[in-house]
Amino acid sequence: MNLFTTPSSIIITCHKRIAPYLEKEVLELGFEIEEAFVTGVKLKGTINDCIKLNLNLRCASQVLYSLRTFRAVNADDVYSYVKDYPWENILPHPGYFSVTSNVSNPTINNSMFANLRVKDAVVDRIREKRGERPSTGAELTGTVIHLFWKNEDAELFIDTSGDSLARHGYRKIPGLAPMLEGLAAATILASKWNRHSPFINPMCGSGTLAIEAALIATNRRPGLFRTNYAFMHVQGYDDKVYLKEDALLEEQIKDVPGLRIIATDYSPKAIDNAKKNAIAAGVNKLIEFAVCDFALTNVPQDEAGVMMVNPEYGERLGELKELEATYARIGDFMKQKCRGYFGYVFTGNMDLAKKIGLKANRRIEFYNSTIDCRLLEYELYAGTRRSES
Ligand SMILES: C[S@@+](CC[C@H](N)C(=O)[O-])C[C@H]1O[C@@H](n2cnc3c(N)ncnc32)[C@H](O)[C@@H]1O
After folding, report:
1. What is the CATH number of the domain that holds 338?
2. CA-293 nearest atom, ligand 1
3. Which pTM does this prediction carry?
4. Residue 2 belongs to some domain of the structure
């Protein structure tokens, strides 16, 4: 059976609260969604479909292709079912594989133990069939086997991605408190930006939001920056499908005449890093960078667009006092310089957000790692001050 052309269940995982944007992306690629949940979506497809999904999705973490479901009361059951699977038809020869899992079972208090049982079962099976031991390790650079195990329901997957798709591969210098690329893309997809009006990103740090905006506007997909995926390490892989999908990514890039993306930060080092990251992403010519206080950012007045800012949230008291003043100034900046624009503030501190002094017309929920965050949307009317609280 060739898994590259055999349909099965596919689960695409993502970070919490990003699923609505992932869902939209998957639909736009022409797939039908069977089920959506908090951390992902489920659909039907082949590993060839997984190739397309891996190369194109901005908001996904992993694309998992289901091999089998089974009931497992304890780790011995997992071992038996895993050993029973014909891994000699999946692992290339000589093989290197890794095991990941998502486990919630009363008999397991450390998911590493479940991983170890899966690994042992695969190694034992391959040793019996091939007379040699495949190598294993934590680096997700070869074949990746994923176990999902909740109570007594277990499912084995091939993780076709390997390293998380949420890191888009162009950011060589992360800087301080950077946003994960997949999260930055999701916040832009959640905004009302039309992909050709000005996109203004003061306090840009390593440039993630500005770079993601340029990538989205010009239809540059994450697959352009990555050459290794776990699907390449599954028996039967033939690079024709991958090369075709990869060539399509180049063909689909589009010009957006007159596009203005402006990114500023008061730290020269941050701007230097952001420029290097933009070069790696191939969008440096599309972004105007400047070193300045955020309030001095050039906001084009001939056409209104989107202003998106991700200020620090602060933890120490002294820091918080200073940040209260910064958040109040962000409110003034939006009122005075961003009329007609949609303003967005991404923050994990709602007390600080109150200092902005404007009434948000949407509060879109996100997580930044484990921090409960909001993308606050402000409609900044051109002529009146109707949005003010
Ligand atoms: C949370 S970081 C932004 C991270 C960014 N979203 C990324 O992905 O890299 C906040 C940034 O605001 C900058 N910053 C803080 N106060 C500023 C000010 N008054 N004017 C301009 N930039 C400022 C800092 O230098 C820092 O780079």
Report:
1. 3.40.50.150
2. 20
3. 0.95
4. no
